[in-house]
Amino acid sequence: DILDLAGLGATAVAALTAQALPAADAAALAEPLLAQTGGNPLMVTRLLADLRRDGGPVDAGTVRAARPPEIADMVGARLDELGPDASRLATAVAVLGTDAALLRRVAALAGLAIDAAAEEVTRLVAADLLVAGDPLRFAHPLVASAALDRLASPERAVEHLRAARLLDEDGARAAVVAARLLEAVPSGEHWAVRALRTAGEEALAQGDPAGASRLLRRALVEGPDEDERAAIAFPLARAAAFAGDEDADARMQAALDAAPNATVQVVALLDRGDALVAAGTPERAREVLDRALALAAAPDVPEQLRAYAVLATETAAWVLGDPRHRATPTGVGEEAAAHALAEAAALALTGAGAAEDIAALATRALDGLTGLARLGGGFLATMALCASDHDEPLARLMDDGLVWAQDVGSPLATGTWEAGLGILAGWRGDLEAAALHCERAIALEAEGWDRHAPAVRAVVIIAALDRGDVDTARVAAEPRDAWTGRIDFPAFLIQRARTLAPEAAIATLRAAGTAAEAMGMRCPALVPWREALALALDQRAPDEAAALAAEHLQLAEHLGTPRAKGTALRTIGLLTRDAEPLEAAVAQLATSPARLEHARAELALGETLRRAGHRVDARAHLHEAVTLAERCGATALVVRARDELRAAGGRNRPRTADGELTPAERRVADLAAAGASNPEIAEQLFLGRRTVEMHLSRSYRKLGISGRGELAARLDVT
Fold first, then answer.
1. Which of these, 208, 302, 326, 376, could form a disulfide with 308 (CB 3.0-4.6 Å)?
2. Residue scoring higher pLDDT (218 or 152)
């Protein structure tokens, strides 16, 4: 009898790994070991023995690269027993790969008739080398490697070329054909150039610049003609720029030389400049973007691209901490709108403008931009409209940007728009949404995203501390050298200070102030380092604290938003222990969209009144603090407010199920219950479609229902 051993599971593989490799992380290696062996006990033990014999450190990459000779010998022996036809067929499957090994292709590559190939497949399946299906696949990746390794390197390269030609003639996707060409000897034929170029352009569009660079460089090796070489130059320059290749500048110059017109040259330079900004090389970024801006003035460059060039240059100037590097306002239409948006952002960031003027200028400018130029203004619009507390247009802009980024498959752009949505949610006091979007952005750092990382970490710290998650806040508060000098670094330092001991916090806040002033950023709403430092100095240097608070209030009054004035008054009230400025702060913040700041002011006023003996008056404000903090998801603030409420002799009010919905969730739920579609809700409430979906999902969960069909009855909407 033959005993058929079932495949091992992750627990068993981890146990075997711990015995064979005591110094390795057995749990982490279980998954790659299973992937390589399919849990086959014999292959697991032989692979572990091979790794132990090598004696070096073992990680997932080591496991995937391992080629145990015992397994290769075992596979070779089985194939020899099955005969030359079976061996040729197994080799064909290995060369074609599991994504392309359809039986008709395998038969053609192996030189077998389809019926004969089917018979050999049956024998290979019985020998536990192949798994039946179409396309065919090996029982385990190690078997595929062993079958392929039976070919000498030159022979293998020739077989890959044969496979690539067969796949191209059979209409396979360019990426499938190109994958075999990368392993093949150059053919010097047009079809190979076409497949590699197409696959490279697809990889670039899907956010894989390194893969695109490899494919396009190989296309050049195939000996393209002059027209083909010129067509490859531009996507290769873009890929090299975003992949951070050492010859990126040379590739960009080659693309510029081959470019048929100024429009293509501008796009190449903008891509290179954007990559240099992301790489933290400000001098080179400015040089390249200045060239793009100068070329964009050519009469044959489309107006939208000219506007995008303006916005890219202006955005880079701020992101790189060089606001004085400004483009000269020119043009009409979208180009003029781009300059207007840049001016609105400058008025906001420098603290030179009043909120109403900033909002009016930014809104008109954004309305004057279309397509990619509108998306290109995302950073500047966020600065201007958040500072002026007119952020309604931003949700739709960011939602459109995220949809575009995901459609083109760019992780870098996706990270930027996820970051924007997280920052906006934090600004509005929606801590759950803020944390969610910021976590998604941070997850894309592994794929190269880093554009607004300091600002994202600042939001993560706020959300974590206000939800009582100190550990997450401390992890997010770890700085990186590459962030120094960025526009959002002061905001990060302000929040980092909240995780530090008093003396270290004060030093960090002073550093934030120095950095902000050096960049000309004096906006009290966007970089409130003065109020944070004033509160930190309360007991140590009260005179300096008072002076900082007064200066902050002066800047806030000039800006003129209820948010800025309210938080400044709250700071003065906390320093003076005086209820009057706190009452004024509450009055201001009650008229602003700053729910979290309003909750803080209500709590501060309630605490102050209670300590002054006005317990009845205190309870009203503490109840409001609890309600607002709950709506924001600020659980730590809720706990503080409830503790104060009990100390004031009050009792916590019970909440009804629909009362658990935040105001934003309730507005969305009411419209959905009344029959409005998600796009209609987004249109009416100036929200992004994804934000509407998120609010509805959270509402269903809180209300204990499964979908919108139950909303009307649950909310008693008629």
1. 376
2. 218
Taking only the tens place, the pLDDT of each residue in 182-217 is 999 999 999 999 999 999 999 987 778 889 999 999
Distance, C-alpha 352 to centroid of its chain = 32
Residue 614 backbone phi and psi in degrees, to 5: -95, 70
Contact between residue 86 and residue 111 where contact means Cβ atoms under 8 Å apart:
no
The SS3 of residue 10 is helix
Exposure string for 293-323, b = 16+ CB within 10 A, e = fewer: bebbeeeebebbbbbbbbbbbbbbbbbbbbb
Nearest Cα to Cα of residue 420 among 403, 401, 446: 401
pTM attached to this predicted model: 0.72
257 or 382, which is more confident = 382
Predicted confidence band at 326 (pLDDT cuts at 50, 70, 90)? low
As a whole number of Å, the end-to-end CA separation of the chain is 72
Tokens of 461: 């710290």
Per the CB < 8 A criterion, the answer to whether 495 and 322 are in contact is no
Question: What is the rounded distance in angstroms from the CA atom of residue 174 to the CA atom of residue 157?
Answer: 19
Q: What is the DSSP string of 590-642?
A: TTSS-HHHHHHHHHHHHHHHHHTT-HHHHHHHHHHHHHHHHHHT-HHHHHHHH
Query: What type of residue is 501?
Result: A
Give how far Cα 138 sits from Cα of 135, 179, 559, Å.
10, 18, 67
- pLDDT over 90, % of the chain: 53
Distance of CA 717 to the CA centre of its chain: 38
